Amino acid sequence: MKKLSARRRHPLAALVVLLLALACTGGLYAVFAPADKAQADETAQSLTIEEGKKLYTVGCASCHGTGGQGTSDGPSLVGVGAAAVDFQVGTGRMPAHTSQAAQIPDKRTIYSQAEIDQLAAYIASLGAGPAIPTEEQYSPEGADIAKGGELFRNNCAQCHNFTGKGGALTHGKYAPSLEDVDPKHIYEAMLTGPQNMPSFPDSTMSEQNKKDIIAYLGEVNSDKSESPGGMELGGLGPVSEGLFGWIFGLGGLIAVAVWVAARTAKAKKS
């Protein structure tokens, strides 16, 4: 007993007891504490993918296959990425009413954004592909509008016309109008190349360049935009302007020439 009492009075006894208490507390916390943030995020992502798979099975599998491998009615979705899903479903192009049309048009969406995110997460789990862009990526803030106009005219105007009004292509296909299109969807279209459009990955066109194009389209299609050349004639480009010149300009000259000839002939008779 005297030896035990002496040990209790040892100067390091309190420190040893404290260390033992901390060790026990840490061990109990590690055993009974909830999962850390990474584990919680992983669990939430798994649930999102599972919900997306359910939505896919009901609304998409009949055309794209039960595992996204594709069928004769729809292409494979393995590796297309979440951005392609967000664009196609977010613009109402998917689910398509028919696979026989020359081109799938945009229409009213049937899924909520939460459901679109779930579908996108499931498709992304099938294979790596472009992710849904963040607001910072597609926001026109800090963009160079003049540079965007140059890039758009060089890469996009051949199909969409120089202000994004859209235009006809071959075999019943067309380049849709880009007026009132969500900047996120414009970015996703450039990133993934839907339907007849070529894709512009970051290796071909940088994030900043995509932002510049989005800013240009927002500027030329805004209510405040003015046409410094006068009548914009729908903003459809040189074809419509040339046609206007031929019909009204040349037509007016012909009318004047006929009128002058008629007046001259009448004057000679008199």
How would you explain this protein's 3D organization?
The protein has 270 residues and is an all-alpha fold. Among the domains are: 42-126, Cytochrome c-like domain (Cytochrome Bc1 Complex, Chain D, domain 2), CATH 1.10.760; 135-223, Cytochrome c-like domain (Cytochrome Bc1 Complex, Chain D, domain 2, Orthogonal Bundle), CATH 1.10.760.10. Helices cover 57% and strands 1% of the residues. The chain contains twelve helices and two strands. It has helices spanning 2-8, 13-32, 37-59, 61-64, 81-90, 113-126, 135-138, 145-155, 157-160, 183-192, 207-220, 238-269; strands at 167-168, 174-175. The termini are far apart. The mean pLDDT is 85. Pfam families: Cytochrom_C, Cytochrome_CBB3. It is an enzyme of class 7 (translocase).
Tell me the structural class. mainly alpha
CATH homologous superfamily label of the domain at 135-223: Cytochrome c-like domain
What gyration radius follows from the Cα positions, in whole Å? 33 Å
CATH class of the domain at 135-223: Mainly Alpha
Number of strands: 2
Which residues form runs of ≥5 with pLDDT under 50?
Answer: none
Lateral strand order in the biggest sheet = 1-2
CATH topology of the domain at 135-223: Cytochrome Bc1 Complex, Chain D, domain 2
Helical content (DSSP H or I, runs of 4+): 55-70%
Topology order in helix (H) and strand (E) letters = HHHHHHHHHEEHHH
Q: Indicate the proportion of strand residues.
A: under 5%
Annotation field: number of helices:
12
Shape: elongated
- Main sheet characteristics: 2 strands, antiparallel
